[in-house]
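Work Package 4 report. The design task specified in the project plan requires that, given a folded chain encoded as structure tokens, an amino acid be chosen for each position. We show below one input record used in the internal validation round.
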């Protein structure tokens, strides 16, 4: 079966991720700087990823997972905003998104296909129907099911681990130290997990190629 989907591009994926993270952040900061309250600033920040998500649904009838995650994060942030509370709670609130994503990874293991399968499917096929059918057929292989569940577990541990570390930092360290250390820890965990993911996927693709299995992307 011919695969007409554009090949996976790490550069394009990074650009998409940066835009979906940076644009809402910039919009939120501008709105907040102009005196708009947090709730309305977050709602304004949600416009860009919402447009990207709707455009993806209209064009390919599939949801761009990056835009979906950003929307999910904004929803979680809005819910967390109403929790309010002490400065410690406000600091922990910043990691509610990663904690929620970690829980979502583990919950998805209860379903036929885990969360990381859908991420891999999107980046490998870019929503192309023919390539998606080829990718879906790979699910019949036990190795593919095991690999996707392992990827989901690893990302679940990474996300939940970041949340737990944030709580430990907030409870044990001064606020200025938490503000300085937390972004570094989040970046380190994300980079380490991404590096492992790409290396693991390369090994899987090499094994598939050796076995004569065609993998989209």
């Amino acid at each position: 079966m011919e695969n007409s989907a554009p090949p996976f591009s790490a550069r394009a994926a990074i650009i998409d991720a940066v835009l979906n993270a940076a644009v809402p952040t910039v919009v939120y900061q501008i709105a907040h700087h102009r005196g708009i309250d947090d709730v309305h600033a977050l709602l304004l920040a949600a416009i860009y990823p919402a447009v990207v998500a709707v455009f993806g649904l209209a064009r390919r009838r599939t949801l761009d997972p990056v835009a979906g995650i950003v929307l999910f994060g904004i929803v979680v942030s809005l819910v967390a905003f109403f929790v309010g509370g002490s400065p410690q709670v406000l600091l922990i609130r910043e990691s509610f998104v990663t904690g929620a994503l970690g829980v979502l990874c583990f919950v998805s293991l209860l379903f036929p296909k885990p969360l990381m399968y859908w991420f891999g499917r999107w980046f490998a096929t870019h929503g192309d129907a023919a390539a998606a059918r080829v990718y879906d057929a790979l699910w019949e292989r036990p190795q593919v099911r095991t690999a996707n569940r392992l990827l989901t577990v690893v990302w679940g541990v990474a996300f939940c681990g970041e949340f737990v570390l944030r709580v430990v930092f907030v409870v044990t360290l001064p606020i200025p130290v938490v503000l300085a250390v937390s972004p570094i820890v989040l970046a380190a965990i994300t980079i380490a997990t991404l590096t492992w993911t790409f290396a693991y996927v390369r090994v899987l693709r090499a094994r598939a190629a050796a076995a004569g299995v065609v993998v989209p992307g």
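The first helix runs from residue 10 to 33. Validation will be extended to a larger panel in the next phase.
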